[in-house]
Amino acid sequence: MTARLPAGRARYGAIALVVVAAVAAGTWWWRPWADAAPKSLAFTTAPGGTERVGTGEHLYRYKVRAENGLKVTPAQFAAEVDAVLGDTRRGWAAGGQRSFQRVDADPVDFTVYLATPKSTDRICGQYGLDTGGWVNCAAGKQVVINLKRWQELSEFYTGKPELYHALAVNHEVGHIIGEGHVDCPGQGAPAPVMMQQIKGLHGCVPNGTPYAEDGTLITGPPVAASTATPVP
Ligand SMILES: [Zn+2]
Questions:
Q1: Distance, CA 21 to ligand 1 centroid (Å)?
Q2: N or C: which end of the chain has fewer CB within 10 A?
Q3: Ligand 1 center–CA 198 separation, angstroms
Q4: Cα of 52 to ligand 1 centre, how many Å?
Q5: Among 148, 177, 206, which residue terminates a domain?
Q6: Has residue 7 got a pLDDT over 80?
Q7: Distance from Cα 57 to the centre of ligand 1, integer Å
Q8: What distance in Å separates the CA atoms of residue 222 and residue 226, rounded to the nearest whole number?
Q9: In whole angstroms, what is the distance from residue 41 CA to residue 121 CA?
């Protein structure tokens, strides 16, 4: 003899089973921040794009996105990022090795985000980076600029937002193009953008661009730990 439930009850039982299964499954597959691109956060992509800048064969296509609800609009933020990456005299586009172009749709080589400290931590945290609510990061194909830093600047750049903004974008994009951390090359020298300047200038003077006016790369002795340990 087999136990049989009335048809109606069996149906409810089946529905309940499906619901329970979905909820249980959710505990392992529903991880919105595990996605490579933080689609679940509310960001808007700056519309339009730029011409290709720089003479370098290696073209980097990038998107710019700003978190929704900020006073800085995606277009305003993009204009600053474009100015930094479009600097063919002293930016990464100088030196004839790279060129950059902003687009507003995939495929891209990297995306530059302007994000609140909380969102910065969430995005960077996906990659195992601890931004502690106050620093920027570059990881995978994402460059995340922390709104707090963007507005409050860092201590050596007080009153010089343009210079700090250039430094922040050049440092993080520097990681994307494969540059590691370096140290100050000597007393009074311009601080390389790949220095973690937030930890101190070590005798160098503030600087926000990878190349000097005369086209030489502003760099310094490599920091060994930067190749092994991901640090923002
Ligand atoms: Zn760094």
A1: 43
A2: N
A3: 10
A4: 26
A5: 177
A6: no
A7: 25
A8: 8
A9: 12
Whether the Cβ atoms of residue 103 and residue 84 lie closer than 8 Å to each other: no
Count the helix, strand and coil residues of the chain and give each as a percent rounded to the nearest 5.
Answer: 35, 15, 50
151, 48: one domain: yes
- Write the CB contacts of 3 (distance below 8 Å, at least 6 apart in sequence): none
Q: The tokens of 95 are what?
A: 């030196």
CA of 190 to the centre of ligand 1 (A): 17
* Centroid of ligand 1 to alpha carbon of 166 (angstroms): 14
Query: How many Å lie between the centroid of ligand 1 and the Cα of residue 194?
Result: 6
Amino acid in position 13 = G
List the domain range (segments joined by +) for residue 118: 43-177
pLDDT digits (tens, 9 = 90+) for 202-223: 999 999 999 999 999 999 999 9
Residue 212 lies in a domain: no
**What's the number of domains the chain is made of?**
2
Query: Which two three-digit tokens encode residue 134?
Result: 């106050």
| pLDDT exceeds cutoff 50 at 90 | yes
pTM of structure: 0.81
| CA of 65 relative to ligand 1 center, distance in Å | 20
